[in-house]
Design brief:
Number of domains: 1
Radius of gyration: 23 Å
Shape: elongated
CATH architecture: Beta Barrel
Strand order of the largest sheet: 1-2-3-6-7-8-9-12-13-14-15-16-17-18
CATH class: Mainly Beta
CATH topology: Porin
Largest sheet: 14 strands, antiparallel, barrel
Distance between the termini: 30 Å
Number of helices: 3
Length: 348
């Protein structure tokens, strides 16, 4: 078992060498930043630093290896009020199901809602009276497998679509992750995840074309030509997460979990942070975290500082084998007035 564990660590380390770590000079050069948004309340309350301990449907957003640590079936529905005051929302629906005794397959759909944006033109800068709404959505398909209840590995394929009227872009990304659990009560956990590795994206469509007068009209006839503008391609915001956690039990069910995480961003500064959770009888969980950018730069990541939240597990049958989970999280943002996460989970 130890040989397998160290082999996986070595392979992940070799892959991570090829990723250019936190580089402030590249900040803002990546696109599809919605891939960095976390709609799930439990992990959002820890600033998305639960690389080692995340499980169930939200593992498809943090570390796909934790997907297989479900009972039989889990369904998650979330609403994320992004950057309060902007009117933006991130909505997500995910389903995960056991495949065999140790595997699990999951599907996650996420959609970014910008609200209605007024249509303006060069001739009507105050607006034409119409409006439009960009369509940004993602569809992820993931699989995870657990060996001897100690080592979990997983991979996820995600399709990404961004569009406004007459202009669109499409791409794909791949996530991979590993989790290792040990201790008398699975106290110690280690997680490594590699996220958003995929194809460059580029916008195209009729919306990038423009009409200009023919510079050399034949026979004195004036007419217009249509010119297509070529948009530059952009990379996806790839990252490497390394996290650890330890559970200190104060009873048979109550425990305090300490979490630490390091994030290596390819297109912004690296980040590190710590968090803590208190679980009472597997019914009430209170959590908080602090994350900070490393190094110096004039541009900061929007999610730094404090985050916190709570979860409630409500049995929905007499045997307590089926539960309804209610999660809330708040994350401080700079600028804006913070982000609120609301999640409902059904575990069977």
């Amino acid at each position: 078992m130890n040989i397998k564990f160290y082999t996986i660590l070595f392979l992940v380390f070799i892959v991570s060498i090829d990723i250019k770590a936190g580089n402030p000079d590249r900040q803002g050069q990546a696109g599809a930043s919605e891939l960095l948004m976390n709609p799930w309340g439990r992990s959002a309350g820890l600033h998305s630093m639960s690389t080692s301990s995340v499980m169930g449907v939200e593992a498809m957003r943090i570390n796909i290896a934790g997907l297989s640590r479900i009972k039989k079936l889990e369904i998650g529905l979330s609403n994320n009020r992004l950057f309060s005051g902007t009117g933006m929302n991130l909505n997500s629906l995910a389903i995960a199901s056991k495949v065999g005794k140790s595997g699990a397959f999951g599907v996650e759909f996420a959609s970014l809602d910008f609200g209605q944006i007024p249509v303006t033109t060069v001739g009507q800068p105050a607006g034409t009276g119409g409006s439009f709404s960009p369509s940004f959505f993602q569809l992820g398909l993931g699989y995870s497998f657990t060996y001897a209840n100690k080592i979990s590995v997983g991979a996820l394929f995600r399709a990404i679509s961004e569009s406004i009227p007459s202009v669109s872009a499409f791409g794909y990304s791949i996530d991979a992750g590993v989790q290792y659990v040990t201790g008398p009560k699975e106290n110690f956990k280690l997680g490594i995840s590699l996220r958003n590795i995929g194809s460059p994206m580029v916008f195209g469509g009729e919306g990038l074309s423009t009409k200009r007068a023919n510079p050399d009209p034949a026979g004195g006839v004036i007419y217009e030509l249509t010119y297509d503008a070529r948009a530059a391609s952009f990379e996806l915001p790839s990252m490497l997460n390394i996290g650890v956690s330890y559970d200190y039990y104060v009873g048979e069910e109550d425990f305090i979990r300490g979490v630490a995480n390091f994030t290596s961003n390819s297109f912004s500064r690296d980040q590190a942070g710590v968090g803590i959770e208190f679980s009472f009888r597997n019914t009430v969980v209170i959590r908080g975290a602090y994350k900070k950018d490393l190094g110096s730069s004039d541009v900061n990541n929007i999610y730094t500082g404090f985050a916190g939240g709570a979860s409630f597990e409500v049995p929905i049958n007499s045997s307590k084998s089926n539960n309804l989970g209610i999660d809330y999280a708040y994350r401080a943002t700079n600028p804006f007035k913070g982000t609120h996460n609301f999640t409902l989970r059904f575990a069977f």
